[in-house]
User: Fold this.
Amino acid sequence: MKIAAVDVVVTCPGRNFVTLRITTEDGITGLGDATLNGRELAVEAYLREHVVPLLVGRDASAIEDTWQYLYRGAYWRRGPVTMAAIAAVDTALWDIKARAAGMPLYQLLGGACRVGALAYGHASGRDLPELFDSIRAHLELGFRAIRVQTGIPGLDTVYGVAASAAGGGDRYDYEPARPTALPVEESWDTRAYLRHVPSVFEAVRSEFGPSLPLLHDGHHRMTPIEAARLGKALEPYDLFWLEDATPGEDQAALRLIRQHTTTPLAIGEVFNSIHDYTTLLSERLIDYVRSAVTHTGGVTALKKVLDFAAVYGVKSGMHGPTDISPVGMAAALHLDLAVHNFGIQEYMRHSAETLAVFRTSYTFADGLLHPSDAPGLGVELDVDAADHFPYRAAYLPVNRLADGTLHDW
Ligand code: EZ4
Ligand code: CO
Assistant:
């Protein structure tokens, strides 16, 4: 089963997506997500110029060998652009293999370990009344686990807080990438954040009770000692996890946080290699692996990370914002079903425009996602519809302290 054609499709149905479509000589197509939010065209060029010419004529069934060929064969390893490109190839080849077998991908990964993947949604509010409305709206949508992000008194725009809470469920979702000529600037003050956040979780617990799983994303902004203090302060509110407490590339930072708090820790959405996890996993410094299939070299590579994590009792908590395309989300759901050490799956619903271009078959019911039993990933790309939505440059925000110093966003 040789690869006959490879297309890179860039489309912007409400936001940008980069999708790889591989077609075999017997006419089977497979899809892979290569979207790197705010740097989409770098991955498109990497694929178009340096990967597509290597794929035509290769054996579509040789997934592991193709992964190694693209990873070792480039000599220059790792990095978000390279690994998103490899991820797309790997995912598309898995899609082809499963379609050829007439099975949903999770069957080829070992079969289902559960009836569905527990999903968490994003609630946010500039103040407590808005936040409570947002949590209620997400509970009404069926979510059984909720990420809580909040405005901070004295700061105008803060990561994770939707601009307007008016008008129902989806509006509470925060979309960080904006189609502006320059990145939007958000503001930050860690002392104000640390003073405010525990009171928010106290209020949410007293309003919604002790059992609802609550999550929070620190989004890389704290030093290790600040993160340790926040983790301790949040212990009475029994968080499911505290995510990205410190910048992810400093694995040793987690040692200090871990020594001070029992709040579970999650990290890894910006990681792209199993080597980003070696200290974190072997020293049991985290509880959840946040990587996405899209950014970690595909199904093949993330399965290896999760098997490595399982050795240390660490579970999955895959990244699932809207910049993971429906193709990337479907790939995540097949892994979620198939790995034993599943923890939770992030889920932001895509817009109607996006879902008109990417026709999905995965379902969300009673708080659980399921990839469906359609063969392959279960996603079809409507290329004609995609052509109606040309790429628009968009950037993630940057973050500044009151004196103008650029801070981690
Ligand atoms: O900032 O997807 O947990 N989710 C997140 C996201 C990321 C964006 C980056 O593209 O942290 O909001
Ligand atoms: Co995050």
Summary: The pocket of EZ4 (ligand 1) is lined by residues 37, 176, 217, 219, 269, 319, 321, 323, 346, 396 (CB under 6 Å). The first strand starts at residue 3 and ends at 11. The two ends are 45 Å apart (CA to CA). The mean pLDDT is 96.
